[in-house]
Structure prediction request, 226 residues.
Amino acid sequence: GAGVSQSPSNKVTEKGKDVELRCDPISGHTALYWYRQSLGQGLEFLIYFQGNSAPDKSGLPSDRFSAERTGGSVSTLTIQRTQQEDSAVYLCASSWTGLSNQPQHFGDGTRLSIL
Amino acid sequence: DAKTTQPNSMESNEEEPVHLPCNHSTISGTDYIHWYRQLPSQGPEYVIHGLTSNVNNRMASLAIAEDRKSSTLILHRATLRDAAVYYCILSVWGSGDKLTFGTGTRLAVRP
Prediction:
């Protein structure tokens, strides 16, 4: 079956531009997560959606970052006025229920480079 | 946050078993132990998870100490494809299952 799909796979943009990253979770998964991984670093949690509940935004590094999940499925992560420190791989994951005993399934990420 | 400690790197020979250790001395009773791995240029891949009892699946086995303060991921016969960074993570009940990744163990497999 189809896994988590992210697009684009690579994005190069100039400092100050806005970018949108897309995630298509596995069908039927109610929980969706965004993480980012900077060069040589571990994964950093950004935001978590669970069903119709208010998202957990506790990991967003600044108000330039926002995300939405439409219709409980596709999610878009938006970074406004990009900075060079935003360069990283942005990873999306989904799971059935968001409970701690459920595995998360990751996409292969979007590699974002800010010039 | 519940923390885990893993060796930075390990090496193994192909077709030999590999035991990857993880210490989690501050684990709480409801925390699940998860293992993920990440191959180069890919997203993390779920390997296995458990709570108290040892677990087996097609990829690996998970041995959990009786006091739950440590665990070991066992790859029964390492292959070159198993070369990856392995992350041991505690999934804290009530945290929305968001995972806190450490730096993991980089496993090299010698042919």
